[in-house]
Amino acid sequence: MDITRRNFIKLAAAGGLILSAGKVFAATNEKILVAYFSRTGEEYGVGHIAKGNTEIVAELIAQKIGGDIFKIEPVTPYPDGYEDCKTVASREKATKARPAFAGDVADFAQYTMIFVGYPIWYGDAPQIIYTFLERYDFGGKKIVPFCTHGGSGLSGTEQRISLTCPAAQLLKGFAISGRTAQSDRSQTDRLVDENLRRFGLIG
Fold it and tell me: Which of 85, 110, 118, 154 has its C-alpha lying 20 to 30 A from 38's C-alpha?
């Protein structure tokens, strides 16, 4: 369905839905999906955030390239409090948990390039990202990891994603500081543009 940019922003908040800008990017003939997990609530050093850092970046990517967007929404929400969320995230990492997420990507096979976005938690992607990666067949598809972080960059997640999806073509990912995403939209916009140009997705 064709939707305006304003409606895109409004609709993208809905978890478990794919929202389409109605384009296949002509320059590369890629059919692109931007899938991401992002958390709102209390954030260290920032305060309470109404929109997650990774969601801000994911929406920018999808707007700029006309990709479809899928929000990885946990069935059991993470705690709003920062310390409580840390406790849950630490336990999930230690046990290699695979938290369930709501909804499904319809016709996943149509996508040739998937941007996968997440915050860095304890030096890794949240375990729900691995739930997503293990659910679908990424064979022959291109994966572009992107993350928001507090100073660690991608923190080795590219390698772990490659091990999880060995039949995919992993492209060089990118990282944007969560503080930048939350408080400096012009810099965030510039960094997203720089990375999309690497893939020939924008001029």
Answer: 110
pLDDT digits (tens, 9 = 90+) for 64-84: 999 999 999 999 999 999 999
Q: Provide the CATH number for the domain around residue 181.
A: 3.40.50.360
Per-residue pLDDT, 29: 84
Residues 158, 144 contacting (CB under 8 angstroms): no
CB 21 within 8 A of CB 62: yes
Total structural domains in the chain? 1
The answer to whether residues 96 and 90 touch, using CB atoms and an 8 Å cutoff, is no
> How much is the CA Rg of the chain, to the nearest whole Å?
16
With b for 16 or more beta-carbon neighbours within 10 A and e for fewer, the 150-161 pattern comes to eeeebbebbebb
Which residue(s) pair with 3 in the sheet? none
pLDDT in tens, 127-136: 999 999 999 9
Determine the structural domain holding residue 66 and report its residue range.
5-198
Q: Which three-class secondary structure state does DSSP give residue 19?
A: strand
List the beta bridge partners of residue 69. 19, 34
Q: Please report the sign of the dihedral spanned by the C-alpha atoms of residue 100, residue 88, residue 159, residue 37.
A: positive
